[in-house]
Design brief:
Elements lengths: L1 E6 L9 H15 L3 E6 L13 E4 L5 H11 L4 E5 L3 H15 L5 E6 L12 H9 L4 H12 L2 H7 L1 H13 L3 E4 L5 H8 L7 E3 L21 E5 L4 H4 L1 H14 L6 E5 L5 H10 L5 E5 L5 H6 L2 E4 L8 H8 L3 E5 L5 H4 L7 E3 L4 H13 L1 H14 L5 H15 L4
Parallel strand pairs: 1-2, 1-4, 2-3, 4-5, 5-6, 6-7, 8-9, 8-11, 9-10, 11-12, 12-13
Helix pairs in contact: 1-17, 2-3, 4-5, 7-8, 10-15, 13-16
Length: 402
């Protein structure tokens, strides 16, 4: 069987979540004897790129011709569209769907986000900071508008725009894969469509093949970590800084440190805020190629995102014995965390409650280690072979060649 992964970025295991998952699945499929191909628009700038049976860069203005030629030449059976940016979805989804009609090739569209996340704006402070630095002024003004407009009014004013975004995916695929059953109804509502057998759920696979040994949980340091793109709109790092300020003010946890790993547009801004807040025991590590040492050393993982499709760093944390604590801001969170058992879920945006439960974790080593062991066990549900089996079942439903 021949599988084509269609993405906007060339695939590297060192890229973001979507690219990392695409790399992981492709390697697993090839180990099982499937041929995996890659078609992409933006060249990778990372030092490592993924290996495929064949690759094709899709040049602007030649999308349909290039896809048609590559699909026919390599006798592609399934095209998996892992597209994130709406610009590429509008161009590539209709193109690949048109060239595969009346052929044996099926198109699977993956929605790796939380339905409705495009209605969430940025904070006013962050948007103004970005505007002052001359960064994408139009996009940041839009974020200000989104943040100031009630959700119901937004859905009314932009009903057609929103509907068309979701219908674009639904109308240009044979199967639509979402990350959680909890997303089906909201996707259908926004797209003004009925949920049917075109919808299916496949969770994201784990990023790593290895698990921390249970006996190593007791060797962890008193470190709280965040691994995140330094972007205020989606990741809301300023909330984490406010939480850490409360930890500092408690005066009882001076032996604990907060380590933030990741680069992004707002990194310098976060550093300035941390300095202005006079935060202690905090460090920003920037973008790191090797992230495993951070997971290996940390005891607790913080997630303060406004939204996530899945939260791949949560399962990465769990498989490395790091206990996650997260705001209850997206439905698929509960597919990963069972509150109080393998992590902690805090009421949306309740800074005090987050700080209190974080400090409770710090103070109760035995319970923290119990949760870490439970996370090691629960994260095995998302091992790559388990998730790959679900994909293979989907392929079988679309073709009889397996």
């Amino acid at each position: 069987m021949n599988i084509l992964f269609l993405t906007e970025n060339e695939i590297s295991p060192l890229q973001g979540g979507t690219e990392r998952i695409t790399h992981t699945l492709a390697q697993e499929f090839m180990e099982r004897g499937l041929n995996c191909f890659s078609a992409w628009c933006i060249p990778c700038t990372m030092p490592v790129v993924s290996n495929f049976s064949g690759k094709q860069r899709i040049e602007e203005g030649k999308e349909e011709t290039a896809l048609n030629s590559f699909i026919k030449k390599n006798e592609i059976d399934i095209v998996i569209c892992n597209l994130v940016n709406i610009k590429y979805k509008r161009i590539l989804l209709p193109a690949v769907y048109r060239v595969t009609r009346n052929t044996a090739t099926s198109v699977v569209a993956c929605y790796h986000a939380m339905p409705g996340e495009e209605l969430i704006g940025n904070t006013l402070r962050s948007s103004l900071y970005r505007i002052s630095r001359g960064r994408n002024i139009t996009e940041n003004l839009k974020d200000v508008l989104l943040s100031l407009t009630p959700d119901l009014l937004l859905k009314t004013l932009f009903r057609k725009y929103i509907r068309d975004r979701y219908r674009l995916m639904y109308d240009n695929c044979d199967k639509l894969v979402l990350l959680s059953d909890s997303f089906h109804d909201e996707f259908a509502t926004l797209g003004e469509i009925e949920t049917d057998d075109k919808f299916c759920t496949i969770h994201n696979a784990l990023s790593f093949d290895t698990f921390l040994k249970p006996e190593d949980i007791g060797k962890k340091e008193k470190t709280v970590m965040m691994l995140s793109r330094m972007d205020e709109k989606s990741k809301r790092i300023t909330l984490a800084l406010r939480v850490w300020k409360k930890v500092n003010l408690s005066g009882n946890h001076e032996e604990w440190k907060l380590v933030l790993v990741g680069g992004g547009a707002d990194l310098d801004w976060f550093k300035k805020i941390a300095k202005r807040m006079r935060l202690r025991n905090i460090s920003f590590k920037g973008r790191q190629e090797e992230i495993m040492p951070y997971y290996k050393n940390a005891s607790i993982f913080m997630l303060t995102s406004a939204y996530e499709g899945w939260g791949i760093t949560l399962t990465e944390a769990q498989q490395n014995g790091v206990v996650p604590i997260a705001f209850n801001t997206y439905a698929s969170l509960r597919d990963i965390i069972d509150d109080g058992k393998n992590g902690i879920i805090v009421q949306r945006d309740d800074i005090k409650a987050f700080a209190d439960r974080l400090m409770w974790l710090m103070d109760h080593k035995n319970r923290r280690e119990e949760m870490a062991r439970a996370g090691l066990e629960s994260s095995q549900r998302f091992q790559t072979p388990v998730i790959a089996d679900k994909w293979i079942d989907l392929f079988k439903s679309l073709t009889q060649t397996l």
